[in-house]
Amino acid sequence: MATTPGTAAVEAPPLSSTHPLRAAWGRKADASALIEALHGSRQRLIVRPASHGVWQLAGSRPLGKLAARAEGEKGSPWPQPLVSQYARYFRDGNRTFYEGLVADRQQRLTRAVVMAAVTGEPGWLDEAIDGAYLLCEQSSWSWAAHDDVNSRAGEVVPDRSRPYVDLGAGEVAAQLAWLDLVLGERLDERAPGLRKRLRHETHHRVIRPFLDRLDWHWLGLDGDVHNWNPWIHSNIIVAALLLVDDPALQARTIARCIEGIDRFLASIPEDGAIDEGFAYWWNGAGRALEGLAVLEQATDGLLDVDLPVIRALAAFPHRMHLGHRWFLNVADGPARAAEGLPWDMLHRWAVRLGDAEAAQHAAAFAGKEPDATAGLGRVLHSLLAPRPEAGGKHQTGPPLTAFAYLPSVQIMVARQTPGTVSGLTLAAKGGHNGEHHNHRDVGSVVVAVDGVPLLVDAGQPTYTAQTFGPDRYEIRAMQSAWHSVPAPFGLEQGTGKEFAATVLQEPAADEPALALGLGAAYGLGHAEQWIRTSLLNREQGTVVIDDRWCLPERPPGGLPPGGTDDVDISYLVAGTLSVGNDATATVLPHGIPGGGEGWGVRLRWKPATAVVLVDEWDLDDPLLRDVWGEKLTRLRFRMPAETRASGAFTLTVEATNEY
Hints:
The protein is of the alpha+beta class. The chain has helices spanning about 20-25, 30-35, 55-60, 65-75, 85-90, 95-120, 120-135, 150-155, 165-190, 195-210, 230-245, 245-265, 280, 285-300, 310-320, 345-355, 355-365, 375-385, 620-630, and strands at about 320-325, 325, 405, 410-415, 425-430, 430-435, 445-450, 450-455, 485-490, 495-500, 500-505, 515, 530-535, 540-550, 565-575, 575-580, 585-590, 600-605, 610-620, 630-640, 645-655.
């Protein structure tokens, strides 16, 4: 549904009382009420103009690599994305070359804005002016991988008359808005007319199409709500607050954004789980928290967001922590936390909500220097907001909680020695294969020793056109064959919500054992035709993964192409694998970036007659290689012929320092 340019904005269906923001705020979130509530909002934000005294404190904080990089690039040609690079996504599926240049341009602008605000020097102001104007001249703010220009018109050149509102467009609009707030007065003196251009481009490329159309898939009107929703809506909130001068238009835009974020929050289960995992939490739930914080500031607390769903979301990151920078990675997420994450934002929320563990965890990770890869808004908040403090004199590290179980996604994380990385940590996952950014990983396990994962999930490779196309599951990292799961009849797991686990035993803090029926994940007749129990025995210092099965002679519908009579159980291994002759193997952290020379794990299995197969995966993908080093290894156990129809296999994992 859409209107032609210039017509009245279309209205979204009204929200019900089951939506948390509507239930909490009622009519206070209507456009008519927001006109008054938002009056004077610029003066209430944490981020202040460069003329404000708070910038003296910001200037005293170390800028480190940000300042050094800014000095090195100042005066050099700006990154210039070209149409041939935009077109590559449609020609050969490569999206990273164009997106990389766009990111380089925006990160340089972020550095220039910070340097202009901190130093007040005209040269830095000119640098920021040039970067902002280049964005205004950039034909498209959207990323080629998202633009509908090819599917709609068969073209590979952005259509300026029909701007596409995606993650990239939202990011540019918000970046220009924060720039306007911080440097606006100086822009009026140094480059009169630029602020008018910022407003014109933002209105044409983002505000108008956002209000005029209800067919944006990320609105969530069809019930499929994912991380694009809060990411884009939160950026549009900032753009509307700072670049829309008409109070009625501003209020209508923000009211629509509140409706959108409310749909996202309504989709969150009570336990606060994000099926896209830890990495996407930051660009989904984290973006929602940022947008809501801006709304609370802008309305002087009128739109209070201390809600149960917010509390649950704030607790998710520390519940997924394995140790050091390693986190449980499900779906399209790397196993190691990225640099530049806005831990200070999460810390502010945790303190605001009174969640001591979440605050302690965020404080332990909060960086001392801003990182331009985080985006201008996040950098400005890290510079101008109060600094995170560790939990207390004796609470300077992350909490490393003993146990977490999120029933909505059937994920358990259990630690042998709470409060320290020492010993074993087990993560086990059920869920289904219709999750957002899904990998076929129903029933998979991850085991870390001293906080470093050795039985692993490969995680996210570099995105291409194939990543979100019909051939997605031809990518090895997304196949069940390359996760730590069984393969009855050599089968791949299916795709869709019906290919799911059934919880047969829920874990508890004092009995961390998750039992799952996995039959449906492979299209078998009953869930209990394959039962996997994953447990942590703290007293014995072991992780046990126990598989039991009772299979039909053939899967329903017969063997698919590639199917076999074999029953395999695979484990994906990082580090150095050595297989012994006595039904044992060792995995050492050698070769894992950041893995060091610490403890490894010893594996023992029964029956000892299982055939052991080892397949090496030489990693040529830069994202996977950055996390895991040169290779990953698949350790496969092929069941003896007499146990193929009905049998059991048990893998026991214990820590070892024997090299």
